[in-house]
Write a structure and sequence with these properties.
protein-glutamine gamma-glutamyltransferase, Ig-like_fold, EC 2.3.2.13, protein-glutamine gamma-glutamyltransferase activity, nine-stranded mixed sheet, Immunoglobulin-like, six-stranded antiparallel sheet
Length: about 675
Amino acid sequence: IAATQPRTDWHLKENGREHHTSKFSSEELIVRRGQAFTITFNGTERPEQNLIFIAETGPKPSKATKTLATFDISSTVSKEGWSAVLQSSSSSSVSISISSPHNAVIGRYRLSVQSGSSSPQSLGTFVLLFNPWSSGDDVFMPNTAECEEYVLEEFGIIFAGNKNHISSFGWNFGQFQGDILNICLSIMDRSLYYRQDPITDVSHRHDPRYLGRVLSAMVNANDDQGVVLGNWSGKYEGGKNPSSWTGSGEILQSWKKSGYKPVKYGQCWVFAAVLTTVLRCLGIPTRTITNFSSAHDADGNLRVDEFYDADGNHLERGADSVWNFHVWNESWFTRNDLGPSYSGWQVLDATPQEESGGIYQCGPASRHAIKEGEVDLDYDGPFVFAEVNADCMYWNYDSATGKKTLIFSKSTEIGASISTKAVGRDNRVDVTRDYKYEEGSAKEREIFKKARKKLGLEDKFDPTAPKQEEVVQKPDISGKFKVAGSLEVGKDVNLLLVLENLQSDAKTVNVNMTAWSTLYTRRRVNQIWKDSISVTLAPKEEKQFPIKIKYPEYQQQLTTDKTIQVTALCHVEDGIQVLVKRNITLDNPAIDIQVLGEAKVNKELLVEVTFTNPIDAEVKDCVLQVEGSDLLQGILELRIPPLKASEKSSTKFKLIPSEAGPKHLLVNFSCDKFADIKTFKMVNVIN
């Protein structure tokens, strides 16, 4: 018998159930480390005697790098290494329970068995993943509802818009679909770290801290031909507009199909969503986080400088910027390198913003360390701290003389309404308090000073703490923009500029106003409107000035981010300038999904999507994109005939759900006048 190849029964169903891997649709065994799995094989004579098992992974397996394990049958599970315990045996087959250590390297293993002095025989391959359900694992998450959400849930909600007006859209992470696991394994094998030293790289794959950092580099295309190519130009020829994606599957599949060429194009939420898919797939609990008014501090001084000309136009000077929102990740694991209080949620960011260690990667930064201002701890603390805490400086810049004058500074602007999806529900949860102490509190300023000190900035100019001899002149007036009415694409934008005289004598003010279409990063794209007014304010008087930006004025200029920045630079006679600004995000019109009938596994289900054209002009080039894990394979694309003014369209299509449970259907509608109108619907599928 010994000469024949053993036949292996991997007990896919039972092992999958025990290891929380049954959602993978694979013929290969997929299990989690630190937990026993059972296999049965035949073809060995006198099976229970001197069987030796060999488990190996990577290009050059060795015991020294923990990528090779040999173990025989023992009566108990080993605390340290791999072990095999006999379950049952007959004259022709043997059942063995195999356990891997809690800190085993993850990846694809080759398993073979050797009987006596004969040469080893292959039993086949299996994939080993992280195990958040096991208390010995670095990614152990004691709350099982959180494991369900952050490892097993294939649907997510990403928050966007701006801090005055938070919006959200669904995303299909799809980590258990088709070939995604194999693609995730190949991402690891294409990293710079692997290419430079494959043996060392594989030996570090037991460590979620190491893999999180490597994968934050691989999800962006910079340096390493990674998965997604970023583009923040507002022009997306030769690729897909970042706001048109609805899930990670299409992106990861395209990357593989093209022979591992970066997929065009992504912006922050795309990088974060793809990283979520990859890390959840490998078993590291992960979620997306949205930070509103997010600072990109390029020079590491915990300060963001913005420059304006005399007309109130925002100037592209200096590398610092403030984004309406920015999306990154948090992953859950212990920080043995820092100590127990720094374990838990760790910030990872795959968006290529600044280099770290010579390549575009960011994190893991302990969220607790960020809150406490411990910016000197690994990795990338200063950058992440600045994203949520930087102070803002607004300057007037005269290009003729090169002179810059400080208009004002603000320490409470950055890092607002930090958001993530709730566990088991579609609500928003605010986690701002987990990143910083209350804005404006003494504790928050104390932490800010501590961070400055650690970075050697304590002697540098601190705008928020003026010394007696350089007290900044107080402004004579205050101003703000108020929104009057709804902010919707296709409708006029109505605002009020509210100016108030703070002094007890009359003031004359010359106001230069501009409105620009921008990207969500506040990068200006097109000027939409400008105007100037001269006003006199009586002592302590408040006046409102209505502003209307008509739809035809902005329609051609609007970016797919649907964002407009309005500024008013107020020149007060004999006083200092006052800058009033507001970033507004317009809402798309609504689109509706109706599920007609009951959703059952393997039965056709009819779905109807309706959209009403809200503008008094025809819309054409209408396309509907539909996707949803376990509801349909891949992406359904439907072309819809043009719609006249106020006309309603109804599109019906069929799905065949493949698995029971709560599933999410995601829809994306685009036409020549509206880009990427998104919605989602939960569909409860029964057996």
